[in-house]
Amino acid sequence: MIAETAFQRLYPSKDSKYNFSIKYSGQFADYNANVRKYYNDISFSLSKKWKNVNDEIVIGLLQDLLVKILRDKKIQKTMNMDMYHSFVKNLHRAAPVAEAPPILELSFNRVNDDFFGGLMEMPTIKWGEPATHKLAHYDYQIDTIIVSSHFKSAPERILDYLMYHELLHKKHKYTGTAHRTLHHSAAFRKDEKKYPYFETIEKEINHFLKGKKRFAFWQKNL
Questions:
Q1: pLDDT digits (tens, 9 = 90+) for 104-116
Q2: pTM of the prediction?
Q3: pLDDT digits (tens, 9 = 90+) for 108-149
């Protein structure tokens, strides 16, 4: 079984005491996965997309999940884990691009021209739920930027800052060890500060969201 192979390559001198199971689910977003442990039972749940991926890459995914669930800080990155992370970082090349809402497409074009020399490939960009805790998000697996719909009426500068931040995630991807994934590297932070008025934009965002909350409260109590 592929999960046992993943474990044996992590721990070549150990006999496994675990019972492994793998389930492929259509409920995950593309190429997502998780792992659960109950006593000696370890169960992996993988997106159906992983069914058609090379076994060596899937082994890297399972090893990555095993290190997290077993919390073994002595494990170093394996060749399979490197293959898995390289695969994830390049998924955007094959991801289909959906038509973006006009406001978001205009924001992307402004940011791409002003900060990336027009060279950034456009990902799928769409509105998400009206969230206030996750303002925007870049999904590496499906090359998609999701922006909280709270910002449909935001000033251009705020929307463009959110777009710029997420495009930096697309540019820099992520780094890390077997135990820690770093999404905001020193290079990322350096680029982030290139946005005009970087020091005050976060305060503007908070002020804008507070205004949205006050308006929602007012409407609710009419």
A1: 999 999 999 999 9
A2: 0.64
A3: 999 999 999 999 989 999 999 988 788 999 988 888 999 999
Supply the pLDDT for residue 215.
Answer: 39
d(CA 82, CA 124) in angstroms, rounded, equals 26
Cα separations (Å) of 140 from 127, 184, 202? Answer: 17, 14, 24
Q: Which two tokens stand for residue 137?
A: 């998000």
The gap between the terminal CA atoms of the chain, to the nearest Å, is: 61
d(CA 101, CA 124): 10
Judge residue 5's burial from the number of C-beta atoms within 10 Å of its C-beta, 0-12 exposed, 13-18 middle, 19 or more buried. middle
Residues 92 and 172: their CA atoms lie apart, in Å, by 13
User: What is the token pair recorded at 160?
Assistant: 């463009």
d(CA 141, CA 190): 25
Q: Give the count of beta carbons closer than 10 Å to the beta carbon of residue 170.
A: 19
| Cα separation, 178 vs 159, whole angstroms | 34
Here the tokens at position 115 are 């900060």
